[in-house]
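During the reporting period the student researcher (J.K.) took over the structure-prediction task from the postdoctoral fellow and processed the backlog of single-chain submissions. One of the processed entries is reproduced below for the supervisory committee.
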Amino acid sequence: MTVLNNKLLLLLGGMFVPLIIASIVGAVLSSKYSKDNSNATIDNLNARIRGWWGMCVICLLSVMIGPIGSVLLFASMSFFALREFFTLTPTRRSDHEAMFWCFFIFMPLQYIAVGIEWYGVFSIFIPVYVFLFLPARIALAGDTTNFLERTAKIQWGMLVAVFCISHAPALLMLDIPGYEGENVELLLFLMIVVQMSDVFQYVFGKLFGKHPIVPKLSPNKTVEGFVGGILASVLLGMSLYWVTPFSPWEAGWMSLAITLMGFIGGLCMSAIKRDSGIKDFGEMIEGHGGMLDRIDSLCFSAPVFFHLTRYFYT
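J.K. obtained the following structure tokens:
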């Protein structure tokens, strides 16, 4: 079980207090416009708030359980994200055994390596051994139709949905001098900054957005939303330096790195959805779409944050 020290309690309080305020605002708006059945914006807002409540409660429970809870949480996220990715990308019957290996052998082994803090295996297992195994297994099936395309999609799904995401709980294995026993706060720092960056970019885009960054890819992402969201996230990260091993300026630079990578991750996932002609990867999380829709930013930011922290602070 994780010991809830004062810093952790303040951090968790900072997660739930805005949710309580948002819930009250949503309830007031819903009551005020209850006769307006066409007000989809308020309904969507309340659905998103309910989705955030569910995600935050699950996050709290995993933190309370301890490192094993965090590993199991992210392993579950990887499972559902990988399922959404494979459902979206067309495969053939001959690929099913390779996909079985991905779901029930490779993914559990990756998270076991994280859980037992075996960095040597965690860091190379998927990008080396799984990467080489998958085309070999698919080739042995004898089906050459779109071989390169099918193999690349399965490899890419494993890299993004499993390998990249597993870097988030891997933060718990870092041995940072003077920061012993507090790594869970570093994990929460990453998740709060990345997720709030998405929220800030959405809010600034709605309030001030006029110039789309990539109109053909994601017309709702604007220059104003991007700049305002990134700056707000950097300031948020600097204000949370006290839960990290960083100074305020270091926390700001770290926040800038992970929010920029998060933005790129969101664009790449939008490109996949646009190419596939869909709006969301799934409907798992009310108001948010699928698991991949919620963690698209984390896919790109988690490995960068992990390795920057490991290189400069361990």
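The committee noted the following: The chain has a mean pLDDT of 88.
J.K. will present the remaining backlog at the next meeting.
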